[in-house]
Known about the structure:
By secondary structure, the chain is an alpha/beta fold. The protein contains 33 helices and 21 strands. Bound molecules: N-[oxo(pyridin-2-ylamino)acetyl]-beta-D-glucopyranosylamine.
Amino acid sequence: MFGSKEEFKEHFMRRFEQQTEEQSPQTAYAVLGDMLREHIQEDWERTNTRYAEHKDKQLYYFSIEFLIGRLLGQNLLNLACYDLVKEGLDELGYDLSEIEEFEPEPGLGNGGLGRLAAGFLDSLASLQMPGHGCGIRYKGGLFTQHIKDGFQTEQPTDWIRETGSLDVRREDLALDIPFFGQAGTAENAEWVKAVPYDMPVVGANGRTINTLRLWQAEPSDRPIPSTKTMQIYERETAAISDRLYPDDSLDEGKILRLKQQYFLCSASIRTILKERQFEIRELPDRVAIQVNDTHPAMAVPELMRVLLDEEGLDWDEAWAITTRTISYTNHTILEEAMEKWDSYLIETLLPRIYQIIEEIDRRFKAKLATQQLSTHDRHKLSIIENDRVKMAVLAVVGSYKVNGVAKLHTEILKQREMKELHEQFPDKFHNKTNGISHRRWLMKANPELASLITESIGSGWVTEPERLRELDRFAKDQSFHASFEAVKRQKKEQLIRHVEHISDSPIDPDSIFDIHIKRIHGYKRQLMNILHIQMLYDRIRQDSSFRPYPRTFFFGGKAAPTYDFAKQVIKTINTVAHKVNSDPLVRQHVHVVFVENYNVSKAEQLIPAANVSEQISTASKEASGTGNMKFMMNGALTLGTVDGANVEIFEQVGEENAFPFGLLAEQVMQFEKDGTYDPQEIIRHDPEIRQVMAELTGGQLTDGIENSNYIIRQLIDRRDPFFVLKDLRSYMAVHDQMLMAYTEQTRWTEMAIKNVAASGYFSSDRTIRQYAEEVWHLDRRS
Length: 782
Ligand code: 475
């Protein structure tokens, strides 16, 4: 940020003294924010001018979530002045990491999908590519989680009210969006003003500063419909950007959500077209729009609407442009997460959009009419079916490229979930295996490991992460082992300092840190993990020869407030934790810690400290997973199912350097088809599982039976749809293997190093380069 430390200090102090507030770390945070804003302003403008002058094709990444995490530290790091600022502040008596803690985390996402979008922006700017985000500026991000008596409680999070935010209100770009009213004319419509807030996205070591444009909903100046009072209108308008839907993979299906989706798409598309400096027919050569899952799939009919009604193109021209501009990423095959909107809802709220969707559907069906297709196939190929609009079908039909997020997931899409669509459009489908920002997950979260790597192989990996492979040379190097182990130890101690206040007994840094952090969900199988822990408890107490190497199991994650099963899983984890941790014998071997309010900042503390990465989804259900990649990059070994990107992790590092287990995707899908899996059979034949089930159904794992009814219903009445009991034996066995491996310290460290070495492939820089080349056709500039 400044030529020298002295210059920084001087500037900082000058600003600091102008402040009326007391000179606290909080004020220091605000001052740093101001300095940063000023510092990047020029480069930000320069980037925009450069794009305009060079007529670069621009990418817009449409996403209902951008889980950006804290920005101060990451921006300083990307500007290559983190160390300088840290040292300068040190000399002034301030601790930068303490100041960073004052930044409220903008929780503008639920989990993987939102975090992926944020990581992609980091890679785009760092690769100096013209790629921007379009999203919503939710006033309240994802709720703050506290644990009370073992249960999750939810408090609203207000991240905006705090100072130091870098975004800029762009009143000049505000526009009105119509809802309801008459198709085509928008007569009697209810208008909502969309105001963009632009957030700079600072690329690493370059001068590229892209834009994350977040839209805020406000009352418009236009007359309101006579059927509404001002008060109701204002409330309903504010609601559009009031809060993020706290559900992940469960579709709440609320009209408000539909409003949010259209609000985002319409404001973004109209602005892109209004600001353009080219002929409308050039759109596909000048703009690419990526829709992140189906939430922004309204982009398809909205772009059609603008081209038809505002630009005056005919249908065929408009369709050709739309389907060469938009591409779509699918993130899940879970039936309940596949968005389907009741036709009447869209028709009432967005009458013109509904007409266009109907016409897209009609023309597509007309095209199919000439083919010999089964009724089943025709169903699968309908956009509108049984008075519902299937957003995924709309997104596929309206895009030129469609991708899954890991090899296995893409294959499942092509061969099963979207088989019929794939047959119609074989060339549209492609895979883009997800990636993570190595700048955040290695350089920022684990500077100690990053330095060690650079000392050993040089800094080439920073811009070419696949060069982490060069670490393989050190996999057997004793002195490297010692340094590597020292870093892991240091990160474990740092984590302990962060979490010890929540733990009822001291955490042993010599124990194996086994970490399971992600949204709480049936398919992610936190339940399997905690049942296994309870089985360890039983075994330790019943078998005096069973004294396993000490392990600390960490859990973290939020449950959607309406997802009762997931909430009971949290209660189970905390009940078993209490039981295990307060047993003097068991606690020498097993310790359980539930980390409250899991978010990006917590992940940055947890992941570098991990020895074991729990990635245990039911095979076929986790589209990719990205936490798995972060752990690997920090030298944790994956204990996981052959699912999502785990498959590619095993491929990259070799199965011998990981712990795969469990049913394969085909086996799961076969059981789902033939219905032959019977959990009761397992309970009957396996005494240990029988015991833990008896404890569960007796209410011992949840302080009473009423706190486990949803779990029991799922395992017994619903016949264990996520194969928890089916995979439990295999899970126990792989844990035993892992324990054996851990006791061979040298071998373990070697495996951990190999994981870091093989993790470069999972940098989102690789993913973004692939999208840029194969989908967006962006020119790379230097
Ligand atoms: C997958 N979120 C991961 C990750 O590709 C994958 C759904 C509905 C409403 C709001 N949010 C969602 C998701 O579907 C989601 O996070 N999906 C995840 O996307 C990135 O790595 O396997 O589950």
